[in-house]
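Re-run with default settings, no changes from the original entry. Doing this only to confirm the output is reproducible before filing.
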Amino acid sequence: MTTLETRDLTIRFGGHVAVNKVSCVFRPGELTAIVGPNGAGKTTYFNLISGQLRASEGRVLFDGNDLTDLSAPLRTRAGLGRAFQLTNLFPNLSVEENVRLAVQARSGVHYDMLRPWRTRRDLIARADEILDSVALGNRRDVAATVLSHGDQRKLEVALMMALEPKVFMFDEPTAGMSVDEVPVVLDLIARLKKDTSKIILLVEHKMDVVRSLADRIIVLHNGQLVADGKPEEVIASPIVQEAYLGIAPPRSAA
């Protein structure tokens, strides 16, 4: 079985330990929400896994391979897909062109001046299939920059799907969205969950989103892993009530 694992993953910025010896195993068919208060190290942990940051100590293992020393692009090639808090698109290209480039990269097709990409109907058909699956088929000719924030997030998911990763990583996918846009993206992630061959990781502040999607919750606090388990168990634990929800434990009688 394919697994994604961090072993004693640690990063220091000067004297500050932002992520401290976090060990965790993620498996296919499971959506894990990573939660914690602001500054807990959630996004930093994400960046260590996806390769945007290099670990001070510890390892990142995936599918039996050690990814620790690989760059972010090489980790993407290995099967890790990452969506950011801010969309990461080609703003002046059309929606279809954005996805077609990702399909082309996944297929290993390089630029050929003797064969324009428009002749590659297979690449275009695959791009259009993905756009239809994220409800952007009717916007394929629109420039990415004019899309609403919610549609840009959907397009970013489409780019990940085009790369056919084994791991989907979402960093606050509903950040900055209107009330009307949130359900569309959550439904898209819920549909991705149906493919039980995929590992899905989700950093999210909104507990209602976590409850609706997560099979498992891990909690970071001051860079350390403080809880790991089923959502109802983790949310009810005293350390999470205090560290994340701000609910102090009851005082014992004098």
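The chain has one domain: 4-243. Strands lie at 4-13, 16-26, 30-35, 57-62, 65-66, 80-83, 167-171, 199-203, 216-221, 224-229.
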